[in-house]
Amino acid sequence: MHKKSELEAMSQEELIDIAKNLGIPSPNEGDRMGLIYQIIDEESILSASQKATTTKTPRKRVRVSKKETDRVYSASQGNGENFDMKKKEAARDNKEEATELKNEKTTPVISPELADLPVEAIVEKEISDNTIENNAEALSAPAPKKRGRKSKAEKAALEAAAKLAEEQATVLSDKAKQLPVMDEPITDVPLEILQDIPAQSAETIDDVTEAEVPEITEKTESVAPSTENFFSADENDFVVVEDIPIIPTEPAMDETYMTYPSQQPDITSHGLPDTYSYEAAENAPEKEIVLPKGTEPTYDFGDILTGEGVLEIMQDGYGFLRSSDYNYLSSPDDIYVSTSQIKLFGLKTGDVVEGPVRPPKPGEKYFPLIRVTKINGCAPSDVRDRVPFEHLTPLFPDEKFKLCKGHNDNLSTRIVDLFAPIGKGQRALLVAQPKTGKTILMKDIANAIAANHPEAYLIMLLIDERPEEVTDMARTVNAEVIASTFDEPAERHVKIAGIVLEKAKRMVECGHDVVIFLDSITRLARAYNTVSPASGKVLSGGVDANALHKPKRFFGAARNIENGGSLTIIATALIDTGSKMDEVIFEEFKGTGNMELQLDRSLSNKRIFPAVNIVASSTRRDDLLHDKQTLDRMWVLRKILADMNPIEAMTFLKDRIEPTKNNEEFLMSMNS
C-alpha cells in the first residue's frame, strides 16, 4: 500500500500503471491529485477486504499472567534477554502439547473402571456414549440394551474396538514414560482441553508463571505505571517501552549532566503513555536531564548576582527596578519585580529595592528579582509598617546644615551660612538672573553639605539644562546627578522629576535625610505647562491655571519630619529673562519657600562673587538654626548693612570676612 508522499513523488505514467493494475475503471489522468486519491481509496478497500477474509473468530483464552510485560525489554550493555522470544518458544511448546492432547482426546481411552470388564461390555458402553453425544435428546433417556444374538456388524465392531483399546493402552503407557514435566505456563490451550486436564489447576499454572517471570513483573510494577524512574535510569540499565531490536551500545562517557530546577522534561518526545499526569510531574522531585553533546549547561549563580534600583509600579501591578545610569527610564538593565513581592513587602513607587537576581530563562526578557533583602537601606520587616509621607507631621527646620568646616572654607558658603542658613527640611529658593553664578553657588553648597553631613543623601536634579553642565556637575559634585537636557521632550522632564520626588518621599518615610538640588523649577513648571491638558483658564504669559499644581506639589514636599527624617529642596528660580511666563511662575512660588537667597546681576557684572544680595536674602525662623550669641551679632550686622546698596554691602562684608579664619572669628572681630 502506497503512501501519499510516495505517490506524489511518482510520475504521471507510473500513477496510471498503478491505477490500471488496481483495476480502477476510469482513472483521472488529467487530474494528478484526483488520481492519487483514487489509488489510495482503491488500495484501502483492497486492504480492508483482505483483512476481513483473513480474520478468524478468536478462541477463548485463559488469563494466566499479566499482558503488560509483552513489550518490555531489559538489557545490560550487550547482553540482553528478549522476553518476546522466550514467550514465543513457550507458546510453541504449549501448542505441541495441546495437539498431542487433542489427538489423545479423539482416540478412545480405556478408563481404569472398564479395564476389568469384558470386551463386549466395553463396546456396548462406547456405543451408548457415542449415541449420547450425537443425539441431544438421548441425554435424559438413554436407549435400553437389546436382548438376543448380535449381528455380524456388531461383532466386527466389538473386535475392532477391542483391538483399538489394546493399542491405545500401549500408547498411553509409552507416552506416560516419555512425557516431560511441564515447565512452561499453558497460554494457547483451548477451553475444552483445559477442562479435561486433571487436577493441575490454575493455581499450579500461576505458580509456574510467577516463578518463571519474576523479573518481568518487577519491571512492570516499577516502570510501566509510572514514568518517574524513566528519566533517572542508570546508563548501564535502561528500559524501553517500544518494540525495537536489541542493539549493543557503548556507554556515553562524555555526556554532561545538569539539573534544571523548574524546567520539566519534554514528555511528548519519549513516547510516554497518554495517561501521564502533568500535575504529578510538576510535584515530582527534580530529575537529572542529559543534555546533548555540545550544549553548555547554564551556570547557577545563586545569590552572586545582586540588583538594585528604584521601583516603578506599572498599571498591571508588577514593577521594574529602574537604574540611575539611565535616569530612571526604561533600559535593558531593568529588573522585574512580581506582583506578589510588591504586595508581600508593601512596596511603593520610588522604593530603592536591593536583592539577588537570576539570569533570564529562554523566553524571558528581564532579570527577575529572586527576593528582597533591603528596602531603602532598611530591613523589609521594618519598612512594611511605615507611615505614608502625606501623614507625617511637618515642622520648621530646627537643625542646621553646617556648610563650614572651620578652616579653608569657601567664601560663598561662609556668607550663606551666616545670612541665609539652611536647615534640614528647608524649602529654599535661589532667585537669580541669568549669568549670576547660581550653578557655581549651588555646586559649592552641595559639596559643603556632602563633606560635613555624610548621613544626608544628595540628589542633583537638572531639568532643561545644557549637556556640558550636566557632565561638569556629575564630575565635580559628590551627589547623584539625574538630568534631562533641553533637547529632550517635556514628557521626559516631567517623568524624571516625578520618580525622583517619589524616591525622596520613600526614603524620608524610612527616616533618612534627603536633599534635592533642582535646577531649575521655572523650567520644570514650563514642562508641566506643556504636557498638562488645557483647562480653559489661562493666566497672563500663557500659563495654564492647573499646570502649576504639580510643580507646587514638588516644591511643597520639602519638610522636616517630627520623629526623624527630612526632605530639603533647594531650587533655582529664573527672573528678568524677558519672558512673561517666567515672571508669573516666580510670583506663584515666591511666598511658598521658607528661605530665599537672591543673586544680583550688578554684582556679577563687576565680578564680585558670590553675587548675593545680602539685604534681600534671609531665612524664616532662623532663630531655630543660630545660637543666641550668633543671632544677636547678626542683628547688629544687618542693621549696619541695611542702609547700603548690594554692591556696597558685599564689598564691606568681603573686606572684613576674608582676613578671618572662620565665621566665629569674624563675629568676634565685630567688637573691635
TrEMBL record:
Residues 49-106 are annotated as: Disordered. Keywords: ATP-binding, Coiled coil, Helicase, Hydrolase, Nucleotide-binding, RNA-binding, Transcription, Transcription regulation, Transcription termination. One of its GO terms (biological process) is DNA-templated transcription termination. It holds the Pfam family Rho_RNA_bind. InterPro entries: AAA+_ATPase (IPR003593), ATPase_F1/V1/A1_a/bsu_nucl-bd (IPR000194), CSD (IPR011129), NA-bd_OB-fold (IPR012340), P-loop_NTPase (IPR027417), Rho_factor_ATP-bd (IPR041703), Rho_RNA-bd (IPR011113), Term_rho (IPR004665). Signal peptide: none annotated. It is an enzyme of class 3 (hydrolase). SMART domains: AAA (SM00382), CSP (SM00357). GO terms for molecular function: ATP binding; ATP-dependent activity, acting on RNA; helicase activity; hydrolase activity; RNA binding. Residues 304-379 form the Rho RNA-BD domain. Its EC number is 3.6.4.-. One of its GO terms (cellular component) is cytosol. Belongs to the Rho family. Facilitates transcription termination by a mechanism that involves Rho binding to the nascent RNA, activation of Rho's RNA-dependent ATPase activity, and release of the mRNA from the DNA template. NCBIfam families: PRK09376.1, rho. This is Transcription termination factor Rho. The lineage of its organism: Bacteria, Pseudomonadati, Bacteroidota, Bacteroidia, Bacteroidales.
